[in-house]
Design goal:
cell inner membrane; MetI-like fold; 3% strand; 6 strands; two-stranded antiparallel sheet; mainly alpha; MetI-like_sf; MetI-like; 545 residues; cell membrane; transport; single chain
């Protein structure tokens, strides 16, 4: 106990406050400080008003928002039939479909960029929109399926009995009930698409630029900090708006689940439902097309089938394109992803515990703090990775040991990306733990730490392991911040791929595709194991966004 103005502060409140300082300190030091420093330098350099007043800036912002909106629409339309398949259908192969739809989301952006470039060598707006949608079909499918499994089908069946067609029953009954999940997923997809970097860099070809790539150009090539700062502010405003809308939709979604029945057993489709299953199968086939194209490209050469790219992984590429071999770059990726995952899981688990405690605390202030913290934890996903990376280089020298030269610099940046995803996966499971179990254990004299160890952790352990594996494969493919921070003598594999495709020489191109295929195989294997481990009937611990 402690005293404050004559009142007794419970030890639990003190402990919760101290625990919450860890994720807050992590965000302040490794996110807020670098971003504010870069934006501040941009304003001090002057010229921000000029950039904001330039019509070209707003055309760039308009293209970014329009392309992100188009990708979001495509992802939602493609994800809904797949969500139905995952939530309502009992057929052989549904488990495989659950894994297939998740694979694109965790593929490295350079892999997806090269996969679509194998289909559209000249790039353009259409492949750019489709590639961003390809990434995010999983967000829609898995998020909507999570709610769809809880919807009572009797309302839809009643509408059908009254003469409504399958489409009218879906439009009038099912879709409004799914609205919160669809809105939540759409907000997250829009966030990811609006801040896409690797895909635009590879498929845009310098002709089509977004706010993210323009920030990179102005910061790295032009050293125009004022222009980059102005663009970052526009991007940040759009991101905050998307996060607020997503948070509101998630809250409605949780309330909707409470009002409906428990999970409904899936069954075989009937009648017109087979058309929806067929649409889902078509979507899954389209998701596999770029992956197959990339694998074919990795074993192709100018003279036919060739494994030259795989053999070249033992070298530094044609004309010394890299400073280390491809296998060394792969080892760098594995080491950085391991460090990033350990750090992100430590911070993410603590943040999830604090958010659940704040949500269950009496009074609106605690719940408001929890909602604010929840939104703040998602912000790193929507702020330019270039801004964060460059901010590291101008701020972290003030910390003991000068982290700018530390091998932990890349893991810190990667942890900032995967920590919000880990929170989104662990938090719903923690919230679902029956509070009466905790109360019973506390009544029997268990301390809060023992309650966590004996009650909470065994129930969420599968989600924690799944989140760690999911975060690991995301870190393996992280490109935005890593491309800016990785040293030339210690590149990760995605950075090496980007270097190879920017250098002339057929062998460099073949080596890049072979590296992408290697990354993709590792990702697919990891996702299959994670999804199999984390799955529960009708839904998965992987996919709560």
């Amino acid at each position: 106990m402690a005293l404050a103005h004559g009142r007794v502060i419970p030890a639990r409140t003190i402990g919760l406050t101290l625990l919450g300082l860890l994720p807050v300190a992590f965000l302040v030091v490794f996110f807020a400080w670098p971003v504010v420093a870069i934006v501040g330098r941009g304003f001090s350099a002057g010229g921000v008003d000029t950039v904001l007043g330039d019509p070209q800036t707003w055309r760039l912002a308009g293209f970014t928002l329009a392309s992100a909106a188009a990708s979001t629409v495509v992802a939602v339309l493609a994800g809904l039939p797949v969500a139905y398949l995952l939530a309502r259908v009992r057929l052989p192969g549904v488990g495989l479909a659950r894994t297939i739809v998740l694979v694109p989301f965790v593929l490295p952006t350079v892999v997806v960029g090269l996969a679509f470039r194998a289909i559209w060598p000249d790039g353009g707006v259409l492949p750019l929109v489709l590639a961003n949608a390809f990434f995010n079909v999983a967000v829609v499918a898995r998020t909507v399926a999570g709610l769809w499994t809880h919807l009572d089908p009797r309302a839809t069946e009643a509408a059908r009995a009254l003469g409504a067609s399958p489409w009218r029953a879906f439009r009038s009954v099912t879709l409004p009930a799914l609205g919160p999940a669809v809105a939540s997923a759409a907000a997250v997809v829009f966030l990811f698409c609006a801040t896409s970097f690797g895909v635009v860099l590879i498929l845009g070809g310098g002709t089509y630029r977004t706010l993210e790539t323009e920030i990179y150009l102005r910061t790295v090539d032009l050293l125009d900090l004022s222009g980059a700062a102005a663009l970052s502010l526009i991007q940040f405003a759009a991101v905050v708006a998307a996060l607020v809308l997503g948070a509101m939709a998630r809250r409605k979604r949780e309330n909707a689940v409470k009002l409906r029945s428990a999970q409904v057993t899936a069954r075989r489709p009937r009648g017109g439902e087979w058309w929806t299953v067929g649409a889902a199968v078509v979507v899954l086939g389209l998701l596999l097309t770029p992956i197959v194209s990339l694998l074919v490209e990795s074993v192709s050469g100018s003279d036919g089938w060739s494994l030259a790219g795989y053999r070249a992984l033992n070298t530094v590429g044609q004309n010394g394109a890299l400073q280390v071999s491809g296998w060394i770059a792969a080892q760098n990726s594995l080491a950085a992803a391991t460090d990033a995952t350990l750090l992100a899981m430590a911070v993410g688990l603590v943040a999830s515990v604090v958010l659940v405690a704040l949500r269950r605390s009496p009074g609106g202030l605690a719940r408001g703090m929890g909602e604010t913290m929840d939104i703040a934890l998602m912000l790193p996903l929507g702020v330019s990775a270039v801004t964060v990376g460059f901010g590291y280089l101008v701020t972290l020298d003030a910390l003991p040991g000068d982290l700018r030269t530390s091998p932990l610099l890349v893991p810190f940046a990667q942890a900032l990306v995967i920590m919000p995803l880990a929170v989104r996966m662990i938090l719903p499971v923690l919230r679902a733990v029956d509070v009466r179990l905790r109360q019973a254990a506390a009544t029997l004299g268990a301390s809060p730490l023992r309650v966590w160890r004996e009650i909470d952790f065994p129930l969420v352990a599968r989600s924690v392991v799944a989140a760690a594996g999911f975060g690991y494969v995301v870190a393996l493919g992280e490109f935005g911040a890593t491309s800016f921070l990785a040293r030339p003598d210690a590149p990760t594999l995605p950075v090496a791929v980007a270097t190879l495709i920017s250098r002339p020489g057929e062998l460099n191109n073949e080596m890049a595709y072979a590296s992408c295929a290697l990354l993709m195989v590792v990702t697919v294997a990891a996702v299959a194991l994670i999804d199999r481990f984390g799955s529960v009937r009708g839904r998965s611990t992987v996919g709560e966004f």
